[in-house]
Amino acid sequence: MAAGSGAGRITVVAGVLVRAGSVLIARRPDGDPLGAVWEFPGGKLEPGETPAGALARELREELGIAAEIGPELERIDHDYPQLRLTLIVHRVARFAGEPRGRAGQAIAWVAPGRLGDYPFPAADARLLARLPALLAGEGA
């Protein structure tokens, strides 16, 4: 799916990184339009990018890691009052380097069953509900 596909809809990608049974989440900045919530790392597609290519680029830029992008886990359409969003979530098969918030954002490794302890954007609700089962199914 290309960036900007669909009338007024933006496409973003997010990655599920797993290490020692925990997943990586990052906190959005306080002044962000969606608020200071936690999310799976990723970002917007640029023109001509594939979702996997965009995710690899975003993880390199935001976290300083080289990532091998795995299968798509979820595709979610969500309408906020201020924007229409398609969220494409991929499993990150493996990565090299130690993730760090290169833009000063906080990051945390969290057990999938504890993700509900963190505020997330509304678009992530379906993924959060399904993630423990998705990861259990692949032996993560």
How would you describe the overall organization of this protein?
- Helix content is 19%, strand content 37%.
- The protein has two helices and eight strands, in the order βββββαβββα.
- The protein has helices spanning 51-63, 125-137, and strands at residues 9-16, 18-19, 22-27, 38-39, 42-44, 66-79, 84-96, 107-110.
- A four-stranded mixed sheet has the order 5-1-7-6, with helices on both faces. Strands 2, 3, 4 and 8 form a four-stranded antiparallel sheet that branches.
- It is globular, with a radius of gyration of 14 Å.
- The two termini are 28 Å apart.
- Mean pLDDT is 89; it is low at 1-6.
Low-confidence spans: 1-6
Q: Tell me the β content.
A: 35-45%
CATH architecture: Alpha-Beta Complex
Could you name the CATH topology? Nucleoside Triphosphate Pyrophosphohydrolase
Tell me the count of domains. Answer: 1
Query: Describe the biggest sheet?
Result: 4 strands, mixed
Structural class: alpha+beta
Task: Tell me the name of the CATH homologous superfamily.
Answer: Nucleoside Triphosphate Pyrophosphohydrolase
CATH class: Alpha Beta
* Helix fraction by DSSP (H/I, runs of at least 4): 10-25%
**Mean model confidence by pLDDT:** 89
Based on CA inertia axes, which overall geometry fits? globular
Number of helices: 2
In the sheet with the most strands, the strands line up as 5-1-7-6
DSSP summary, beta strand count = 8
Radius of gyration: 14 Å
Span between N and C termini? 28 Å
Note the run of SSEs as H and E. EEEEEHEEEH
